[in-house]
Write a structure and sequence with these properties.
The protein has a five-stranded mixed beta barrel with strand order 1-2-3-5-4. The chain is built from no helices and five strands. The protein is mainly β.
């Protein structure tokens, strides 16, 4: 028996920094961790290209994104929901 169990998709929260592309957002996700040697809180940010089918999010919105199948070379995240609208 081959028991392949699907894991839950990775969910991240970030801020929309660009919505100029067609059906695509750029979302900055900030992650913080304690450096093992320096014992200092480090903040690291990463930008993701996110698919937004309805083009509902705008710059400054806080959104939740989820991982999914690749749509292009760099786009594999999908807009799950808008947590806090900017305006």
């Amino acid at each position: 028996m081959d028991s392949t169990k699907k894991s839950a998709p990775r969910m991240l929260t970030g801020e929309v920094i660009s919505d100029k592309m067609d059906k695509t957002l750029v979302v900055r996700v900030i992650r913080s961790y304690i450096h093992p040697r320096l014992k200092k809180v480090m903040r690291v940010s990463k930008k993701y290209k996110v698919h937004d089918e309805s083009e509902s999010a705008t710059v400054g919105d806080t959104v939740e994104i989820r991982e999914g199948r690749p749509l292009s070379k760099t786009k594999y995240m999908y807009l799950a929901r808008i947590l806090n609208a900017h305006s």
